[in-house]
Write a structure and sequence with these properties.
It is a single chain. The protein is α+β, with helices and mostly antiparallel strands. 25% of the residues lie in helices and 22% in strands. It contains nine helices and 19 strands. Strands 9, 12, 15, 16, 17, 18 and 19 form a seven-stranded mixed beta sheet that branches. α6 crosses α7 and α6 crosses α8.
């Protein structure tokens, strides 16, 4: 009998949701045949069977979210009889407040645990005496947020409480344990932090004239990542105007031949990407992660490119070792990854390991965008709309005149814990200089 565990789908992924089992208990399964489908905050994937045999047990139901390393099923040889009842995915526990030793959620970059540890059933601080079955991930959320599980309605099979049910309860503030109730009149004065905790934040509710659109999995994941980033990094911004005339001239002169050769249009984004990876060589601290006692500078550039999914969410596929690519190779990678991101054809590894990110709202004609840092990175660059504008140009004889050039802004969001404004400003100035002066014709050859 062999265990089938939740796989590590990307280096920063710590949990996944089983969305579909392709086999039932008792079915024969061949090695490398799709066994189940798993959904993470990064990607949806079909997972093949690690060996051939008979599916003897399914331990985790469709819709359940569990940690990496959790045993999902067991496969035996052809002679093994299927189990009479699937074993539960988690031990029954009582709702309780987290112990003092429990820490906050692990950062996105933290290594995944090989398997969830079975927690002892603590005494219920809410007095519910609940014995509901909870998956490891659900149990962790309940304990960390001191929730009363009896106040949470389960939407999973058989009324089981899912991760989304707990998140909804947290958002609504309807399942808080009695331990978090405001102190009675005459009770000792609490600190500001304790007072803030006991005062629930008003939760908006849809009225008769409103339309409630349920948050999707990717929207919830994006919201959590963005909130965590703002809570983690000291966000600061610097912007600079770039004269894109040299870039635009190459695009106009070579656009037809380039599209005929490559099958896609030559946009501004590959030029910006090429200038960024070159500028990082001179300013390596923007390509880093901020550790507890050190700045971890990455001596390679894995360039993330934010991709919009038809206004339904964002993915950030990663161009590995982008610092070794010239303009044409970067353009191919940007086009390929963006296309496969929109068609959900990316592998988990292509969505992890980024060291610096570029976001590009420019096609919408934006003026200045202040993006949120993609953790655990320390900087992200936005490239905004490029338009024809009057600018002052210098003639060969040193005189000045008014010309019409293509100009636009680039904006850097950086983590002030990692470096200061002078360093950030020098970096964006170097990106500007490269965009305005590089021999872009040679880059295309």
């Amino acid at each position: 009998m062999a265990d089938v565990e939740m796989p590590q789908l990307g280096e920063t992924v710590t949990e996944g949701t089983i969305t579909r089992w392709f086999k039932a208990v008792g079915d024969a399964v061949a090695e490398d045949e799709p066994l189940f489908e798993v959904s993470t905050d990064k990607v949806d994937s079909e997972v093949p069977s690690p060996l051939s045999g008979t599916l003897s047990e399914i331990l985790v139901d469709e819709g359940d979210t569990v940690d990496v390393g959790t045993v999902l099923a067991r496969i035996g040889d052809g002679g093994d009889a299927p189990a009479e009842e699937p074993a539960p995915a988690a031990e029954p526990v009582e709702a309780s407040a987290p112990s003092e030793s429990e820490s906050e959620s692990e950062p996105e970059s933290a290594p995944a645990k090989s398997a969830p540890e079975a927690a002892p059933a603590p005494q219920s601080s809410a007095g519910s005496g609940s014995k509901k079955l909870l998956s490891p991930v659900v149990r962790k959320l309940v304990n960390e947020n001191n929730l009363d599980v009896d106040a949470i309605s389960g939407s999973g099979p058989g009324g089981r409480i899912t991760r989304d049910d707990v998140l909804d309860a947290i958002d609504a503030g309807t399942a808080t344990s009695t331990d978090d109730a405001p102190a009675a009149v005459g009770a000792p004065t609490t600190t500001g932090a304790q007072t803030a905790k006991s005062t629930p934040t008003p939760v908006p509710r849809a009225g008769e004239r409103d339309t409630a659109v349920p948050n999707t999995r990717i929207r919830k994941a994006t919201a959590e990542h963005m909130r965590r980033s703002v809570d983690t990094s000291a966000h600061v911004y610097v912007s600079i105007e770039v004269d894109f005339e040299a870039v635009d001239r190459v695009r106009r002169d070579h656009k037809d031949a380039f599209k005929a050769d490559e099958g896609f249009s030559l946009t501004y984004l590959p030029f910006v990407s090429r200038a960024v990876v070159d500028a990082i060589r001179e300013y390596p601290e923007v390509n880093a992660s901020f550790g507890p006692d050190e700045l971890i500078i990455h001596n390679y550039v894995n360039l993330g490119i934010a991709v919009d999914l038809d206004f339904k969410g964002l993915l950030v596929p990663v161009i590995a070792d982008a610092d070794g690519m010239r303009l044409r190779a970067l353009a191919r990678s940007v086009s390929d990854l963006a296309g496969r991101a929109r068609n959900k054809k990316l592998s988990p590894d292509e969505l992890s390991g980024g060291t610096f990110t570029i976001t590009n709202p420019g096609p919408y004609g934006t003026t200045m965008t202040l993006p949120v840092i993609n953790q655990p990175q320390v900087a992200i660059l936005s490239t905004d709309g490029v338009k024809r504008r009057p600018v002052v140009v210098e003639a060969a004889d040193g005189s000045e005149a008014i010309g019409i050039h293509s100009t636009g802004n680039i904006t850097l969001t950086w983590d002030h814990r990692a470096f200061d404004g002078a360093y950030a400003s020098a970096f964006v100035k170097h990106v500007k200089d490269l965009l305005e002066t590089m021999d872009w014709v040679q880059e295309l050859n």
